[in-house]
Write a structure and sequence with these properties.
The protein folds into two domains: 194 residues, Gcn5-related N-acetyltransferase (GNAT) (Aminopeptidase); 240 residues, Aldolase class I (TIM Barrel, Alpha-Beta Barrel). 35% of the residues lie in helices and 28% in strands. Strands 8-11-12-13-14-17-18-19 form an eight-stranded parallel β-barrel, surrounded by eight helices. Helix 12 packs parallel to helix 13. The chain is elongated. It catalyses: 1-(5-phospho-beta-D-ribosyl)-5-[(5-phospho-beta-D-ribosylamino)methylideneamino]imidazole-4-carboxamide = 5-[(5-phospho-1-deoxy-D-ribulos-1-ylimino)methylamino]-1-(5-phospho-beta-D-ribosyl)imidazole-4-carboxamide. Keywords: Amino-acid biosynthesis, Cytoplasm, Histidine biosynthesis, Isomerase. This is 1-(5-phosphoribosyl)-5-[(5-phosphoribosylamino)methylideneamino] imidazole-4-carboxamide isomerase.
Length: 454
């Protein structure tokens, strides 16, 4: 490894940062963005955006911000270590490096070694058994650093990032932090012991399965389905949302899609009791949308057990919130893009903007969302089929996963989406609501068509 120059040091920041250090951090981040892009920015945002980003990040539980200092005390690098959410049974054994940079004028002095060592030590101290990292394939120095520290390259994302009009692949790395015999104790029972880290890439099918998300739309504490997004055209299905969620779980579903319709119109969470009841009554991962308009509300639901939050109106009206949330909770923020004939709708579909779906999708991709749910409102609840053409176009213009929604009424509609996904592999799932409640589509048959788990 490169010899570390004398006088350089790292430290982990607390919940506050001095004004001088904040200015130094903003300056070094801007230099790193201009050099190779960090924190998912390729061009530096206004200093006020970076200021709010770092101030907010320091207040987020289970996120550690590390900085590297040069001999004169100025900040010359930074990194973010994300720990598994408290109480997570699935991901509680791993931590992730979500950001890492050294300013260009301090590279080659061993500062990266110093910073990465601090991250590994902290992850081990927090009980992590593995440390994960993903990096663009164009960042050769970062890749070399990971190799030097014994990280294993186990997979490649073909549509990881867009830089200008160019698509860049992403490389996935992991490092085991405990002896191999201890790792065996938490290996999933159905995973062969001899499975190679490279095997997922080698066995990837050319026709990937799609995930089915059963929908629970909440209005007045009950499960309903709207037609074309009209609140006064709702069909009532159940007075007991937790029981409905349990039925989906018992039928073999592995995900739930929940929308607080009243919250979407009011701009704040409204069906709190119903959502909390669903979370308590099932063990399924829940993605929740409707009325999530600030960091406090997002944090409240993630801490309550929601797996992912869906930001819809905020994606149009408060993109800084989306960017801040996506960086604070990597992989837990997805954008909901609802459109009427190609134009984005907000406020529970009550307002239509001049923004096109493609423009907003690209903005959300740049903001760092983990995926996009696309709904053509004119088809929602009508059982006449998805808008395949718009869904495919969206998947071909961005690199983040696309979940289709709005209009599924028959198995043929799911078959059409599966065929479309062969040409647009960015399509990864579909939300089904009314067709399941009405019995037009059965879960076993839907799973068979989609070729994956519900």
């Amino acid at each position: 490894m490169t010899q570390i120059a004398e006088g350089y040091r790292t430290e982990r920041l607390g919940h506050t940062i001095s004004e001088d250090d904040l200015e130094s951090l903003i300056e070094s981040t801007t230099a790193a963005i201009l050099s190779e892009g960090v924190f998912d920015w390729h061009t530096p945002p206004e200093s006020g955006v970076l200021r709010r980003f770092f101030e907010g990040l320091l207040l987020v539980p289970d996120r550690d911000v590390f900085i590297a200092r040069s001999p004169d005390g100025s900040i010359c690098g930074a990194a973010i270590l994300a720990h598994a959410a408290h109480g997570s049974e699935i991901y509680g054994t791993s931590a992730s490096i979500t950001a890492f940079f050294i300013v260009p004028y301090e590279q080659g002095k061993g500062v990266g070694n110093l910073l990465l060592s601090a991250l590994i030590e902290r992850a081990q101290a927090r009980g992590a058994k593995a440390l994960d990292c993903r990096v663009r394939e164009t960042l050769h120095d970062a890749i070399a650093l990971l190799h030097n520290f014994g990280f294993t390259h186990w997979g490649t994302h073909p549509y990881f990032a867009r830089i200008g009009d160019r698509t860049v692949r992403g490389l996935f790395f992991s490092k085991l932090l405990v002896p191999a015999d201890r790792a065996m104790q938490w290996q999933p029972a159905d995973m062969p012991v001899t499975m190679s880290h490279h095997e997922p890439e080698q066995t990837m099918t050319t026709h990937p399965s799609l995930t089915l998300y059963p929908a629970i739309d909440l209005k007045g504490g009950a499960c309903v389905r709207l037609r074309q997004g009209e609140m006064n055209d709702a069909t009532h299905y159940s007075d007991n949302p937790p029981a409905q969620a349990k039925l989906f779980e018992e039928a073999g579903c592995r995900h739930l899609h929940i929308v607080d319709l009243d919250g979407a119109f009011a701009g704040r969470s409204a069906n709190v009791k119903a959502v909390e009841g669903i979370i308590a009554n099932t063990s399924l991962p829940v993605q929740l949308g409707g009325g999530l308009r600030d960091m406090k509300t997002i944090e409240r639901w993630l801490e309550a057990g929601v797996s992912r939050v869906i930001l819809g109106s905020a994606a149009v009206k408060d993109p800084d919130l989306v960017r801040q949330a996506a960086r604070a909770w990597p992989g837990k923020v997805i954008a909901g893009i609802d459109a009427r004939q190609g134009r984005v709708a907000t406020e529970g579909w009550a307002e239509v903007s001049e923004l096109t779906t493609t423009d907003l999708a690209r903005r959300m991709e740049d903001a760092g969302v983990a995926g996009i749910i696309f709904t053509e409102i004119t088809r929602d609840g009508m059982l006449e089929g998805l808008d395949i053409e718009q869904t495919v176009a969206l998947a071909q213009h961005v690199s983040v996963p696309i979940i289709a929604s709005g209009g599924v009424g028959t198995l043929d509609h799911l078959r059409a989406l599966r065929e479309a996904a062969k040409e647009a592999p960015g399509i990864t799932g579909v939300i089904v609501g009314r067709a399941l409640y009405d019995g037009r589509v059965s879960l076993p048959e839907a799973l068979d068509v989609l070729g994956g788990s519900c």
